[in-house]
Specification:
The structure is a homohexamer of 244-residue chains. Chain A is of the alpha+beta class. Helix content of chain A is 29%, strand content 29%. The first copy, chain A, has one domain: Ribosomal Protein S5, domain 2 (2-Layer Sandwich), CATH 3.30.230.70. Chain A has a 5-stranded mixed beta sheet.
């Protein structure tokens, strides 16, 4: 049950997003470069373009899009060892990279892209919960800029960019459905749901986990209601950032 | 929309499971060893026990449970390179290992286990879709046997085993909601949903992906209906195998 | 000295094999798939085929055959860490993979195979001594099925399959020469000899190690006598399984 | 020969630094967090603190300081593969990490630090030449903040922070000695010299390389003159940022 | 059949060793350091000592001995990639390291060594066939020196060194049994047998492979005759080098 | 201040090299193979040649030269773990490999080499300080032999070999500038400077580090004076070894 009478540790209502900021042109080299902030969570999302496609797509006439997510070692409350130095990428990192890739492939029509590859990189500068959802949300804007860049140069045969895709987390904390969890809430949530939504309200992906408890159909419904609201606001922010 | 008038390539109704078989005592060394079969998908699920816990659980009075999932190289239609030889574990493997671990931790009360560790291994002998859901379903039975083994030896202070947990995949194929997808269906499904359910109908985890298309609230509801039916049958099969 | 008056822990005579079972068609995807059992040792041996050869064989007109051996982590009495997760393949694993490859290349005339590659995989489901010799013995049957498969499809120009190759271990335990050692015997044998033999009695490979003591020419002779007997029986079992 | 009459591509005099900016408190979690900018080169330098020291320093009564340098994959003109994904850290990365560590250890009296460890991380957000010298310059400020943090908490027995250390690159381009090379100049410099200097004008480290040509004693002298000037300005900027 | 009438490419009789040289004190730091040469094959064999034993031997009262074999990249006719740079140790390297370790453990009574560890390193400076047998032969001499070193320092409670162990290769080339094969012969031998023998004529290990053909009991006997002769000469050379 | 009145632990004057020996033709397979000794430091330097160039040099008409440096595990006072077994190359190894490569590329005109590759390997057999400078000095001689080898075979279009390049270390110990530091001095030097010089006195590379203290312009000048003297002697030794 959402309860707008109570507020949270940071003063937000249960169905309220943290302040969201999307800064385009954050760095100069990539075709698209965005800093996305969900409260204190800050992710640098870039979209680099490359002519040509990986071997399994050669001569398909289609393009390709792939994504990598990573945390800077000092992004977390306690510094984490650098994955490159350990020579091993953690399961969590792989899992999120794959989620970001799948989510953004839902925002692009590869058959319209020509044989070009877009590489998304989501590097977390500061982590305070919701890094994967911020990554997806920011990556869409970087993707839009990269496709515009390619289109300007005349190498894109069609109109590959589809409607905006954004993502948000919802959780149940002390029985309350809460939107956009910061680390402090995330670590003690009973249930954690990440929702990737396309403009119009349909889902690209949903992932719900009962971290410390199970959840039923009714709770799922309440969480999805709140998530839809959050995603709509994020899509507004994406559109605003892009000047659409 | 489920359509019980039509049937599928393998003759099943859309809301029908493939034949499920659970064989206990498949091998002799682990405390629990199960062969689980969903149609042609065959997974060897074992639960090995170890006295003591990893460092981060030391002196907590609690136990620990972890899981690893892997495919034999010849399990798939086309042989896949062996991960140990490449020196790299694929993102997909990590992702499923983590899912299995989270799902089975929902089936055990670690505070009742004492400082013991249970290691689950799900090794796919033959893959025909649904390997992760078969793994979770089989692992519960192996886990139950391992806990019985520990209890018999008197090293478990409490009653750590919780109610059964099972998992099933649902997809949308040519607009039809279909239960327990084999590889042929899985590879062309528009939407793919994996549901991990505890006895009683509450969810441990749901993961839905619009592989080739988006999905709305209504479709999600239909898929969950069918998944719940599948999970209930699987829990019956687990109980039957365990002689409960 | 073999001593047929005494028997062993498991009741066998010193020159007696454990029960051997060879099950063809164990899984469906590979061209050849065999479950081989020497007592409680169980190995899944598959032969996968691929058109084309590795670079160093290109345009040679010849085929290639290679093998990989591995243990499932729960195959042993104590669970062993998964090699893929450690990112390192153990020396023992490499050593046995190479032995299996060399042994089976002695069972095939690569010049008759055409530019095709056969990949053997020997995955130990349960280990109780003799996993390398069971692997070789089972792999021959999988190889035969794979070559039949290729021949049927008309891609093999000649008759690549040579006479059967089988392998067995012999050891000296408390001064007795003993055939086909289970784990319990293997771990305390003074001498350990693995013999790979082709039908007709000639050797493909012999590897003898004085694990806890040296051995002389006479003992070697006695061990080879017993090994030859064991290999002959295994070749009979291979022929029976193949219906030859 | 420096030639103040001529100017460079970006309009600077040959002995002029690019605009330098040092922003403290760039992120919130580490004890020290600095964004340093030399023109378009931008590096996030953090100093994380940990109670205790690595094994080789245990019971020495001294602290330890170590550093890691890395580039984000999208920091460069052309995107570079992520080192964590390749499972290999490049030689260049190792070399610079070691240089940063040595340079900053010259800015701290470990015997005054107590058994505490300071971990520096220099992550390049955008690369345009001089990333290693910017890293050293920014890391000093992060280090100062981290030591202040530790001192406030009362865990530092003495006064470990020594006088400022800064670094700059100098090169010879078309015969001219030029200060603080951006990528475009760096890639075609005949000689490249990195100078790490402590306040007062003494050197911590100098590394000079004739990338496309040799250099003599006289040229070395001219380059050091210009480098000293650059380092002095950087130390002024460090002091200003720290409010000293 | 050995045929002393014919000679080989290098003028040797079929049962003749290449010139063998064993140089003690080849380098200064290790407790034992030997350069062993079998013709043009040159291996640096060192024995380093360490107080204490690995964990699995702790408090056993026994010592431990382990070995590593490697080739310098420029040791072979064609340069080979450096294993450290590839991040992978080849199966062949593992296999030989394990053989050297087993062979030399047969030359030491670990219960007499005290809780000390001897690490053997066999680094091939130049390879011309027989590198593994030269390694074993040289390593015995380095081991003897290392044990003398430990004994002198009073840290060895007993007399751990056993009788000499040496190794040699034998092959069948064009039907002739030939001793101590150089690369040119080794690469075209029909059968290749490596024999590790202890003084007195008993075997530590034998490994025979039909590289391009099978071999029978009679051929095995002939090869062992020749190998025994070679090993005896090598043991004489070891004794001479040690001044025994 | 150099002080020729005092002498060092090993009896040398402060500006005196250890005995230098350069042995050509140390091994037979590589095109150039040199053993270089600076006192007890011994490095095997080889130059292997390969027709063709790496991809980034294809169709450039130019050749390529690269270098790898490594220590044998038993080369040091205390045995060091083997990098290939750890699966990781240390930062120090990378750093020196890169230094050797850059230094020797200054001794070759790649545009005169044709599309051929020269691979230098510097493997330290015994380490007693100055391994990197000995490596560079010896590698020049191996390089000269390899280029002569290529020239003889007619595959080199021009005259790629440039004037000799040699390297030496200088340090400040107890306030004295000292040439060519052995390990015992190196480990306690206040300042450590490595100088790579081409014949004629110009620098290829200088790397100076204040390991336990800073250094000023004057000290740098004194160290360079001594280093130049050392390098000149080394170049004389190179010329003598080459019979020039």
């Amino acid at each position: 049950m959402t309860d707008s009478g109570l507020t949270r540790l940071d003063g937000r209502a249960f169905d309220e997003m943290r302040p969201v900021r999307i800064t385009r042109g954050f760095t100069d080299h990539p075709a698209g470069s965005v800093l996305v902030e969900f409260g204190k969570t800050r992710v640098m999302c870039t979209a680099s373009v490359e002519l040509g496609v990986p071997r399994f797509k050669k001569d398909s006439g289609e393009g390709w899009l792939t994504a990598e997510y990573a945390m800077l070692p000092s992004a977390t409350h306690e510094r984490m060892p650098r994955e490159s130095m350990k020579g091993k990428v953690k399961g969590r990192t792989h899992e999120i990279s794959r989620l970001v890739g799948r989510s953004l492939r839902a925002a692009v029509d590869l058959s319209q892209l020509g044989e070009n590859t877009i590489q998304l990189d989501c590097d977390v500068l500061q982590a305070d919960g919701g890094t994967r959802t911020a990554s997806i949300t920011g990556a869409y804007v970087a993707l839009a800029d990269a496709i515009a860049f390619l289109t300007e140069r005349g190498v894109v045969p069609g109109k590959p960019l589809l409607a905006p895709v954004a993502a948000v987390s919802v959780g149940i904390i002390d029985g309350h459905v809460a939107l956009d969890l910061p680390y402090e809430e995330d670590s003690r949530a009973e249930v954690d749901l990440n929702v990737v939504m396309a403009e119009g309200g349909n889902f690209v992906e949903i992932q719900g986990t009962g971290e410390h408890g199970l959840f039923g159909r009714e709770q799922l419904g309440e969480m999805l209601d709140v998530a839809e609201k959050g995603c709509s606001q994020l899509i507004d922010a994406q559109r605003a950032a892009l000047g659409w």
